[in-house]
Amino acid sequence: EPEVTQTPSHQVTQMGQEVILRCVPISNHLYFYWYRQILGQKVEFLVSFYNNEISEKSEIFDDQFSVERPDGSNFTLKIRSTKLEDSAMYFCASILSGGIYEQYFGPGTRLTVT
Amino acid sequence: AQTVTQSQPEMSVQEAETVTLSCTYDTSESDYYLFWYKQPPSRQMILVIRQEAYKQQNATENRFSVNFQKAAKSFSLKISDSQLGDAAMYFCAYGSYNQGGKLIFGQGTELSVKP
Questions:
Q1: What is the structure's pLDDT at A100?
Q2: What is the mean pLDDT of chain B?
Q3: Which residues contact B14 (CB under 8 A, 6 or more apart)?
């Protein structure tokens, strides 16, 4: 069964450093998403991406964040200058089309900022 | 704006018993989908069940079923014959075409299963 993969599974970084979280969505999916979950809290939408551009972003997704689909398979989330409050689980998800279908979530990347 | 509320931070059930997790939502849209996701300690998000708003029939998946009350904007999850492996955090989520497919999650309910 196809699945969304994410690397790394756990990233530890120092405050102020740049991090890139990587995702490989399911190959024929067209819509991609990043979500964030601070420990003990709910999952929050960060950004959606379609046709090589951002289709929507939340208030959380400020200028420190960027997304990219550098090739036909990878989908990345970059945080330019990490803050302590960026420590969270980051999930990538994808769906086949713009209709509402099951979102396939990756296993997540745990980001720890020290 | 759409909101999803889960008013039960924690629930407990005896193994083999039935438990119901509550979820309410607020929306002005008529066409949308509702989901229940399970998040075990590994923190992987696993889809349990989904309900299309235009369908009157409640969705079922094996031991999992929902009680979808569209007028009341209520979407509860019933787990029958609870198993130890059902212990997890459960999130209710809302999605719609107008929202571009993004999901809006509730705060979650931590379910423990007692042997």
A1: 59
A2: 94
A3: B82, B113, B114
